[in-house]
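Q: I'm writing a short explainer about Indole-3-glycerol phosphate synthase for a general audience and would like to include a description of its predicted shape. Could you first generate the structure from this sequence?
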Amino acid sequence: MNILDRIIETKKNEVASQKRMVSVSQLKKYPGYRRNCNSLKETLQKPGSSGIIAEFKQKSPSKGEINFSVKAEEVTKDYTNAGAAGLSVLTDYEYFGGTLANLAKAREVNPDIPILRKDFMIDTYQVVEAKAFGADVILLIAACLEKEEAEVLAKKAKSLGLEVLMEVHNEEELEKLNDFVDIVGVNNRNLKTFEVDVETSVKLARLIPGRFVKISESGLAGAETIHYLRKSGFKGFLIGETFMKTENPGKACKKLIAELSFLT
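A: Of course. Here's the predicted structure. Afterward I'll give you a sentence or two in plain language.
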């Protein structure tokens, strides 16, 4: 069993437990469920957008502990002030140290910026949960979903006003795209081996239909790499570890965005 398989097995148990604790009807009473969502798709396409989707991630299966000395509300606010186009908040606890509480805190202090709930979505319950806790966008990972499952989850998200980011890693996974997807993210990290290659984005860029906004994920350590990927049509760049491994993630984000301004 590879890492991704283990994560999904754990996630199935987590979702089942969460359903027993908080019902869908209860989630629909949360303040976040009633709010109008911010559009990441539109933000990434605005002239002058940094394109940076700054992530709050405290650990990972491949790197272990990254940074537990900072708070979600402080870091995400700093990201916003630095000029990030969007935020990403991990909510998987077992493998990434994330929580729904972190998502809610990020939402509270950043009301106007698009926020992605970063998790392994396998059940429509999680889509409702994402809306209730203040997300604007959900992540669907093609590697852990069948085509029909992805469509059901994406359709549910759109019915709630959420946008959908579909993450792919190879050409075969592009076949799982559907009409409810807004953004296609190319993960340069193979989730089964955790090896990273930025050329994965370049190779897949020309195969992604033009109606989708393209973003690149993982292994994006510097302005030159982002500038290189922009030439292949990428509008967004999801960056977490590069920022989070520093003492001041917001400052690191601001520095990168400043460097990008010299290359545009």
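A: For your explainer, you could say: DSSP finds twelve helices and ten strands in the chain.
Q: Perfect, that's easy to follow.
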